[in-house]
Amino acid sequence: MRPARFSIALGRSILLMLLLAVFAARQTVTAAETTDAGPTLIILFDSSGSMWGQLPGGSQAKYAAARDALLQALPALDLNARTGLVTFGRGCNGVDVVLPPDVRPRDRTIAPINSLNPRGKGPLADALSRAAEEVEPGRRASLVVIHDGPDNCRQDTCTIAQRIAAAHPGMPIHLVSLGLDATETAAVSCIPEATGGKVFPVRSLSEVRGAIDQAIALAMTSGVPAPSPARRKGAEPETPKQKLPEIPADAPPHLVVSATLGDTQAVDKPVHWRIFREDDKSKPVLDILETQFAVPLPAGKYIVEAALGRAKATQTTEVAGKGPTAVTISFSAGIARVATRIGNNQTSKIPVLVSVAELSEPAANGAAKTSPLMVIHSPSSEFVLPAGYYRITAESGLSRVTRDIAIKTAEIEAVNLDLSAGQLHLSAVSASGAPVTDNLTYYLSVDDPNTPGGRREVLRTAASSPILAVPAGTYYVKVRSGLYEKYDQIAVGAGSTVERAIILDAARLQVVANVSLEPSNGEFPIVYRVLSQGPYAQEVAMSWERTPQFTLPPGRYRIVAEIGARNVSVTQDIELAPGTNKSVTLAAQAAELRLRIAEGAGVVATNRFWEIRSASGQIIWRTSQHTPRALLAPGRYEVRCELRDRTLKGTVELANGQSLIAKLSEQ
Q: How far apart are CA 3 and CA 9, in angstroms?
């Protein structure tokens, strides 16, 4: 390859060509299996409301920048590729398979994104599950997720990723992450780790195009087809070993790259490789996620960088003028294989948070202070770590266990962590036994003589039916729904599972206030107040919604609705029985008054100040609006309008349901 052509290789088009060459070198299935099956690429596009936000470096929304980058990237794909589109947003049930994967014009794959209106939450975990269901067994496939945050619908994304990896071995999931912080990145890093994919972090607007280009190019060159059902006999077959092509000694120059743990143990996990020319370290010639590969490169000196988990290594090599130049990167690293359980339950539904921190030396009894290197939301994980000392911590609910380990080069350290806790499954039901899931907050407290009141709150959750891991002991549970609270006391033993449905005898009240003015009814503001009755009557709830719902303890209450922020109000006393649902309609008497200055009054456009007084002389309203409009209780009113050089007066009589225009003139 001539030097002039190599300079072009730094561009996007030659990068894609090199990646295609890598793919040709790593085929492990027969020609009969792949000649009639083009690669499958499914784009998962985040359409949650946060996609209207912006990245540093410009005013374009993340949604628009990602859409424009896709418009540029997809048309260059292999014409035999099957493309699909899944969008997720609009709330936790908002996953749409817009286009199942198929061979189609590329602009048709992207066209539906133009009509998206990003809003609501982003159910990332459910989107991954639905996209994986669209992949046919035996096809080479990849998923590319373009998103700006982790799942915010309380789903365990890491568990979903592991299930997808088991159901579709060899299908990577790549993430184009727009503006994620360190915590958010850690929450989603398990997805590419479980599936052999890669994260393309985007920190500014200028990086969007390049990240999507690289993700699409990598997706089209990776993804080993899963074994078809017909080939599965008995136990699940092992994933076939990757084979490198035999490159003749007189062939054009190639760089053949592989990796080991220590000196001998071959690496069977995807490694993040970056290759630079020795005289130009500003931009990699190749940036790829592979176990091992062969790539054609012009003769010369190169720097090979490799990253596997937390382990990193660099080596400089010189590619010969002909044939293969083999480079083996040796990681001074080992593997920590972590498995957790809660009590005697190894298949608990309770999420577990596993963190890894580095120690400078062995620490007795966990005395050393540490900062996590990584955090994984998965009960079973495997970490590649440089040789050294580490602290592994598993946390779930209120339970926590820590173990210090030593990682040795090329060795596997099994870390089994038992949280020695019990499981507490909480739920709420109404007095009739129906499940209650809305507007709930659970509070967990324990005895603590050093805390005012003798109890200390240890946990709070708004989950509708929380499942918690807690150390053995006695807990005080408070459930709050609106203004209603219910208390319970629960004992949990180590390794036990306690299920408790707490009966809520709260009453639910829905209120609506109407005035006999149409279509003006609904245009004026309303404030509702709920007051308790008794010797210590006080306001217990307030709402500005038009038809609010209150959850209240049983008892007697007074409801007051004030409409229009003037003098229109209506009051009603009610009694709420335990467990009842009651709807109350308040009928208010009101009239609409519109104020104008008569045409013959000789008043030109000028500042004016209006005042309305009741028949008893009480000031009801003052305003400087040009032509004011008010909702008032029926009755007699005096109206004044102060102008720059004079005052206009008038009297109006309003009847219930009346809409009156009062025009003032000099008297």
A: 10
Scan for tokens 């010639």, then name that residue. 285
* 173-178/199-202 β-pairing: parallel
How many CB atoms lie under 10 A from the CB of residue 278? 12
Distance between CA atoms of 153 and 48, rounded to whole angstroms?
12
Joined tokens for residue 554: 């049983």
In contact, 349 and 466? CB cutoff 8 Å: no
Distance CA 138, CA 539 (A): 66
Q: Would you call the peptide bond into 253 cis, given omega within 30 degrees of 0 as the criterion?
A: no
On whether the CB atoms of residues 579 and 509 are closer than 8 A, the answer is no
Residue type at position 517:
L
One-letter identity of residue 259: A
Cα distance between residue 269 and residue 272, in whole Å: 10
Q: What's the CA gap between 466 and 231, in Å, rounded?
A: 42
Distance in angstroms (rounded) separating the CA atoms of residues 200 and 202: 6
pLDDT tens across 308-354, in order? 988 999 999 999 999 999 999 999 999 999 988 876 654 556 678 88
Cα distances from 241 to residues 224, 229, 266, 268, 383, in angstroms, run 11, 19, 11, 8, 21
- Looking at the chain, how many residues does it have? 667
Local structure of 162: helix, strand or coil: helix
Please check whether residue 413 is in contact with residue 336, taking contact to mean a CB–CB distance below 8 angstroms: yes
| Residue 654, burial from CB neighbour count under 10 angstroms (0-12, 13-18, 19+) | buried
Euclidean distance between CA atoms 127 and 441, whole angstroms: 28
Q: Each residue of 617-636: pLDDT tens digit?
A: 999 989 988 889 889 999 99
Distance CA 211, CA 523 (A): 49
For Cα atoms 307, 311, 313, give the angle at the middle one, nearest 5 degrees. Answer: 60
Q: From edge to edge, which strands make up the β-sheet containing 609-614?
A: 619-623, 609-614, 635-642, 647-654
Q: Find the radius of gyration of the CA atoms of the chain.
A: 34
**CA-to-CA distance for 421 and 659, rounded, in angstroms?**
68
**Burial zone of 360 (CB within 10 Å; 0-12 exposed, 13-18 middle, 19+ buried):** exposed
Measured from the Cβ of residue 62, the count of other Cβ atoms closer than 10 Å reads 23
Contact 272, 201 (CB under 8 A): no
Phi, psi of 364 (to 5 degrees): -80, 135
pLDDT tens by residue, 185-230: 888 989 998 888 899 999 899 899 888 988 888 887 654 444 433 3
